[in-house]
Amino acid sequence: xxxxxxxxxxxxxxxxxxxxxxxxxxLASVVVSMASPLLVGRAVDSLKADVRTETLxxxxxxxVGATLVQGIxxxxxxxxxxGMSRDIEYDLRNRYFSSLETQPPAFFHDHPTGDLxxxxxxxxxxxxxxxxxxxxxxFGTFFTALGALFFMSRIHLGLTLVALxxxxxxxxxxxxxxxxxxxxxxxxxxxxxxxxxxVQESFAGVRVVRAYAxxxxxxxxxxxxxxxxxxxxxxLIAWSVAFHPVLQALIGVGFVAVxxxxxxxxxxxxxxxxxxxxxxxxxxxxxxxxxxIGWVANLxxxxxxxxxxxxxxxDVVPAIRDEPPLVEMPEVRGALRARNLSFAWPSGExxxxxxxxxxxxxxxxxxxxxxxxxxxxxxxxxxRLLDPPEGTxxxxxxxxxxxxxxxxxxxxxxxxQETFLFSATLSDNITLGRPEATREEALEAAxxxxxxxxxxxxxxxxxxxVGERGITLSGGQKQRVA
Length: 482
Fold this sequence. Notes:
The protein has 18 helices and 4 strands. The protein is mainly alpha-helical.
């Protein structure tokens, strides 16, 4: 688990200006909280003497003051550390999205959209809980346990050892339950990804589903996937909720032993009543860290499982990327040349074999061939959506593998067979490749594409929203907008 957590260290280090004050606020809160048991113990012992009302009121005022100060530091630690976890979540989400943006189309063939969406939502939330509440409570429980054990041992070392009798069993149960929860949570996240994929595909293909009257089949398929998710969650919940009763039972054994042995010590005048009361207050403070161990371990196991799932995506090196030496091209004329260009799919099936041609800048060429002859493959090789072999495909005499990807793709306008429009305005979709284009340039592009007549029929012209994937447009209109 600690190896997986090491991945978060660069993020935590970049927020050390929040992490360190947050940890100091935890320490201050714990230190102040240690005063309450000591004050109560002294107040109890003072009852044996001829105590005055003013003395008791003084102890009460100190207790109220300590509680208020502790509350202030508790508020600060939550604001700082929970806020830090939100910042880390923000950074991770940006990094995750950026890593997806650099991947070639083949990557998305191997990773369903629903799975990628699940990692961007549920898994990121689990990592946020790891970076915020888990850190806050783990340090809080550590400092509290350390302080409580120190004062307990000062009162009576033997009684402290009796209180810790159940600790080995607590440690073993935490390890066993933690491993099982980690495994089950990973499975549940995978099933949530299946649900996301199923929903995304159903919504995207809603027209096909209705055209073939497959609504009932889709509902049944979703019901099965959802049922698997439900059963996985039930198993996870069963182990998670069983964890706390087991811990409480083990802790209760130590508490009973303390009452018995502590009572004997009081009767033999080895410790005072006030000291015994103080000891029990500190023991109560120690009980929360013991219980919190289980909750923090639960968060840690879930968070590390989700972190692993995120890393599986973020650590993937793009198969198609800029590799030096690169050639900068301030101007692209558009002359194309292929020399013995061959390309095969990962399965080994050839798409193109020894293809050679020259296309002059400004020349119009039509590719004609039977289905599967490699027309789409060739067009995908030009902007390096697929990677051609080195030294086989050239733009203005420069190997396309030596041209920066951003430069190469900005120079090529491409309309795929399956058009995709963003849920934005017509203008936004038309100027996607050139966001700086003026409105007049967008209108001219629409005219050239034969969209001028349609624009007059749209309620807001270029500012008309096209809906998700351009659902408000006809097939021909989508092609012309693209």
